[in-house]
Amino acid sequence: MSRFTDQVALITGGSSGIGLATARRFVAEGAHVVITGRDRRRLDAAVAELGDRCVGVAADVGDPDGVDAATTAVRERHGRLDIVVANAGTGTFKPFAEITVADFERTVAVNFRGVFFTIQRALPLLAEGARIVVNASWTLHRGNATASLYSATKAAVHNLARTLAAELGPRGVRINSVSPGYIDTPMYPEAELDPAEAAANRGRVPAGRFGRPEEVAAAIAFLASPEGSYINGQDLIVDGGLVAVVPGG
Ligand SMILES: NC(=O)c1ccc[n+]([C@@H]2O[C@H](COP(=O)([O-])OP(=O)(O)OC[C@H]3O[C@@H](n4cnc5c(N)ncnc54)[C@H](OP(=O)(O)O)[C@@H]3O)[C@@H](O)[C@H]2O)c1
């Protein structure tokens, strides 16, 4: 399949996990990608793997200058954008009573403000019919102890996607979110979790396993592709049934 021939995609947090799997998928289907991340070495390794269709920008989406650096790089290299994947995010999981103002500010800066301004700064570059996918989380659909701060930011970005679907619709732009479940990535590495926590998580999923980043990338690519042409303002949950199902029930 080559659904993205010569299209230009910006993927924040494209140096690892779901973002990197998405970048691989887009490049395999003919796109040019601009990926961001803070760690230069990880970014360089991703660019080396993805080849000359990929540019890496070392930038922190939690910093407004980092957001501008990413869109400036897109403008200078390609002059336009067909796809934005606002994927970079950070997890803060603590009991509600222990969350500090610093936790709050950092998490909101990356997960909400970063997504908000990545999309806003991308607007002048968006081609007619561009597509935007925001990476949210299954935790916006179910109460989950210790996830108050993280889940609220993910609910915020899904809500933003709905609003922007209305605002940007007249330009032919579609915007949706994806909500991954337990996905085995460096952010949530199955092998490094407490074995009891990992087993409990698997037990909540009918298939009895964590998801792979490629499985979320496939959903992002679907939403960004012509097959998703009449899907707008939605959240696509990619969680193996975690939210919807009581396993074995
Ligand atoms: N894994 C899961 O189970 C899961 C479940 C639901 C939702 N999600 C969401 O999926 C998204 C991707 O997570 P992942 O699991 O693929 O994690 P990951 O493997 O740790 O990748 C995160 C990517 O984002 C980049 N990043 C993190 N903070 C950044 C910042 N402030 N500025 C720019 N780049 C930043 C990282 O690079 P640097 O560290 O070098 O900056 C990396 O490229 C996140 O939004 C996360 O909330 C994940």
From TrEMBL:
<dbReference type="InterPro" id="IPR020904">
    <property type="entry name" value="Sc_DH/Rdtase_CS"/>
</dbReference>
<dbReference type="GO" id="GO:0016491">
    <property type="term" value="F:oxidoreductase activity"/>
</dbReference>
<protein>
    <submittedName>
        <fullName>NAD(P)-dependent dehydrogenase (Short-subunit alcohol dehydrogenase family)</fullName>
    </submittedName>
</protein>
<dbReference type="InterPro" id="IPR036291">
    <property type="entry name" value="NAD(P)-bd_dom_sf"/>
</dbReference>
<keyword id="KW-0560">Oxidoreductase</keyword>
<feature type="domain" description="Ketoreductase">
    <location>
        <begin position="7"/>
        <end position="181"/>
    </location>
</feature>
<dbReference type="Pfam" id="PF13561">
    <property type="entry name" value="adh_short_C2"/>
</dbReference>
<dbReference type="InterPro" id="IPR002347">
    <property type="entry name" value="SDR_fam"/>
</dbReference>
<comment type="similarity">
    <text>Belongs to the short-chain dehydrogenases/reductases (SDR) family.</text>
</comment>
<dbReference type="InterPro" id="IPR057326">
    <property type="entry name" value="KR_dom"/>
</dbReference>
